[in-house]
Amino acid sequence: MENIKEKVNYCLNCKVKPCSNKGCPLNNQIPNFIEAVKEEDYKRAYKILSKTTVLPGVCGEICPHTKQCQGSCVRGIKGEPVSIGEIESFIFKKAIEQKIELKDVLEIEKDNQLKNKKVAIIGGGPSGLTSATFLARKGVQVTIYEKYDYLGGLLIHGIPEFRLDKKIVEETVNRILNLGIQVQYQKELGKNLTLEDLKDYDAIFLSIGANKSAKMGVKGENLIGVYGGNELLEYNQHPNYSGKTVCVIGGGNVAMDCSRTIKRLGAKEVNVIYRRAEEQMPAETKEIEEAKKEGVNFLFQNNIVEIKGNKKVEKLELIKTKLVQKEGESRLVPVNIEDSNYEIDTDYVVMALGSTVEEKTLELGLVVNKWGNICVNENFETSRDKIFAGGDLIGTKGTVAYAARSGRDSAEAIIKFLKKD
Question: What is the pLDDT at residue 316?
Answer without folding.
Answer: 98
